[in-house]
Amino acid sequence: MIRTGGQIVVDQFSAEGVERVFCVPGESYLPVLDAFYDVRERIDLISCRHEGGAAMMAAASGQLSGMPGVAFVTRGPGATNASIAVHIAQQGSMPMVLCVGQVPRCDLGREAFQEIDLEAFFHPISKAVRQVDDVSAVAEAVMNGFDVARSGRRGPVVLIFPEDVLRASVESNVLKPQSPHNRELYPEAIAAIGHQLEKAQRPLLIVGGGYWTEESRERLHRFVDARQIPVYAAWRRLDIVDQNNPCYAGCLGLNTPEEAWERVARADCLLVIGARLDEPTTNSYQVPSVDRKGQILIHVYEDEAQIGRNFKPDIASPASIENIGVLFERLTPSIQYPRDDWCAGARVEFLSQERVLFDDSPLDLGRVMADLNKGVSTDAIVTVDAGNFTVWPQRYRRYSRPGRFLAPINGAMGYGFPAAIAASLAYPKRTVIGCAGDGGMLMTGMEMATAIKYGAKPIILVFNNCEYGTIAMHQQRTYPGREIGNDLTNPDFVALARSFGAFGLRVERTAEFSGALEQALAADTVALIELAMNSRTIE
């Protein structure tokens, strides 16, 4: 069949099972927009108010499903606006395909209108980037882009299409999607890991990774339960392990208590699965220590290039999360030394964090989180932005199953609201709670119009302390008495929400929250609850 490049792109999307594409329309990919018209009953085209919001929704979709979320933006300004989300997806191992229209091939290199070197721009922050300069290669490029995004360590792939390539026509067939390339553990690594765990007195497990299935999680639970191994979640991977499991010991990252870092350092066998040992997870690369006297480090990760990048392991093997269960099933639960006290001690330390819940502020966030836990089921999806306020939904809500917590690993502000919209569109019957600070909310808050238009119904909690609280905290610690640039002048968030047609309420006292939450749950539309607090409440 003879088709335009734009039609080939969209038909290949259909073949890949894409149900939703996020975009801001642009003239550089008009043939693609025209092709979407023909498949409008099969693929929802979600037109957003900013390319950053569109791409963040795509990244969140990928994080939720394990399959690539898709966004389409125009060249130059559109691509650069979307780049924050590409970085979010890269550091968060989120499968994503970002398609970008480009100037015609004949104008490349002439600083044409809105032209930038997109390959050079995206190369450092993406898993792969490719410019497609021949219409006959479009189908293969899209198929391969999806394959790369979802195989091994998932991540963002950027596909660039000059507009004349999208206009051109060629005889082309729809290509069958590729099966993901999942790495299996080295057999010799399984035996070595089993030997070290069997003789360890103080073993400890750190789990991470962008996407775990229910089956992988259940195998993990059986593994740690049988061996009494404390398990920590890597930075912002809070929903991998059931936090009600007695072996769960907490999350490593910012705001981790010192006793948790000390316990990781004391472990004689440290098994790391699915985590790349990034800066937050290792306390700025301090734990584990470089010399690791008396500690065996075992690293199992999807991307072989990441193994040994920050810490040289004693035993290592590449393996996809889908195949991690093989390790759990093959290792016999033989133990030479009792570990009950070691595991129980880690659990006690975790539970002690939750005891510092309540204070005498007019709006006590500890009690707010307690009321949220009572009012919203454990099946709800929680998304967060970046900032000090995130310690509350991260520490004081229990997560028990994969796909219930979405957060930007790279700490990008503005992610919480678009992620909540994407989650609500993907799971319209489930409750979605988005958490954002006042700073982050105004970075992507215009997407409320998108949520209203397409029927997304998340509940957004806006933690409003009228400042960039995290930076204010750092300034106060480093340069006492010289704080500058952090105070914010905010709109009336409730009036702003209502102006979009959303539901809005302001909560100033703790006792008001549970009622506000009940009204938001019953609103049957986007709902915003502004949590008004003083600037020191969330530091």
Please describe what this structure looks like.
With 539 residues, this protein is α/β, with parallel strands linked by helices. It has three domains: 2-169, Rossmann fold (3-Layer(aba) Sandwich), CATH 3.40.50.970; 187-353, TPP-binding domain (Rossmann fold), CATH 3.40.50; 365-532, 3-Layer(aba) Sandwich (Rossmann fold), CATH 3.40.50.970. It is built from 20 helices and 20 strands. The chain has helices at 5-15, 30-38, 51-65, 77-92, 118-122, 138-150, 163-167, 187-199, 214-227, 258-266, 321-330, 340-353, 365-375, 391-395, 416-426, 438-444, 448-454, 469-478, 493-499, 513-522, and strands at 2-4, 20-23, 44-47, 69-73, 96-102, 128-131, 156-162, 169-171, 203-207, 231-233, 248-251, 269-273, 296-301, 315-318, 381-384, 405-406, 432-437, 459-464, 503-507, 527-532. The chain has a six-stranded parallel sheet, sandwiched between helices. Helix 3 (51-65) packs parallel to helix 4 (77-92). The radius of gyration is 24 Å and the shape is globular.
